[in-house]
């Protein structure tokens, strides 16, 4: 029977440090499909997705053996952040249009992004996000700011914003993300 869950992040990182083939297989089995989906949705091909994922693994392999490397998010989030930044950088260099969906932000924390991609890319992303946030309601801006930028838990947001339950706060989060997605679709139409 095929295992449907990846081993723990710490097991995978330990395997990568010792260059175990099984850890590389874990990366390709569990994390490559999400990278491929992102690249394909953003003007790329399967071959380009494979290139980006291999570059991502190289970045990871440079960082893993260092003494100060500490994973502050899930391995999947970390890998997706590296891949996303590499792909967006490649698109900008090629002069191709970048059309990333807001849903890509979900589960993404600016604190988990590698700093190796420069301040220019970060500034451009911040400008895009600010433009997107300007098109949604103030209530949604506050909610998204708290969740994604201030990294508050949904429980803390529910309490701070006076929602009657965590479920209501999650529903509002969904509605706000939908509002932002509509803004992206309307702006690109």
Automatic annotation (TrEMBL):
GO terms for biological process, alphabetical: DNA-templated transcription initiation
Family annotation (SUPFAM superfamilies): Sigma2 domain of RNA polymerase sigma factors (SSF88946)
Record Pfam families: Sigma70_r2
GO molecular function: DNA binding; sigma factor activity
Stored InterPro entries: RNA_pol_sigma-70-like, RNA_pol_sigma-70_dom, RNA_pol_sigma70_r2, RNA_pol_sigma_r2
Keywords annotated in UniProt: DNA-binding, Sigma factor, Transcription, Transcription regulation
Occurrences of domain RNA polymerase sigma-70 region (ranges): 27-96
Protein name as annotated: Sigma-70 family RNA polymerase sigma factor
Organism: Hymenobacter montanus
Upper lineage: Bacteria, Pseudomonadati, Bacteroidota, Cytophagia, Cytophagales
């Amino acid at each position: 029977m095929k295992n449907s869950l990846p081993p723990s992040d710490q097991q995978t990182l330990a395997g990568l440090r010792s260059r175990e083939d099984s850890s590389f297989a874990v990366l390709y089995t569990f994390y490559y499909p999400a990278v491929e989906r992102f690249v394909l949705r953003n003007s790329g091909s399967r071959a380009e997705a494979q290139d980006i994922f291999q570059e991502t693994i190289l970045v990871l392999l440079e960082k893993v053996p260092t003494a100060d490397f500490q994973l502050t998010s899930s391995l999947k989030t970390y890998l997706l952040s590296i891949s996303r930044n590499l792909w967006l950088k490649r698109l900008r260099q090629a002069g191709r249009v970048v059309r990333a969906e807001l849903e890509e932000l979900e589960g993404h924390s600016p604190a988990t992004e590698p700093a190796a991609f420069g301040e220019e890319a970060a500034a451009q992303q911040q400008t895009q996000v600010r433009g997107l946030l300007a098109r949604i309601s103030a209530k949604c801006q506050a909610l998204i700011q708290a969740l994604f930028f201030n990294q508050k838990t949904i429980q803390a947001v529910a309490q701070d914003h006076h929602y009657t339950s965590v479920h209501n706060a999650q529903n509002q989060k969904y509605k706000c993300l939908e509002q932002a997605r509509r803004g992206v679709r309307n702006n690109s139409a």
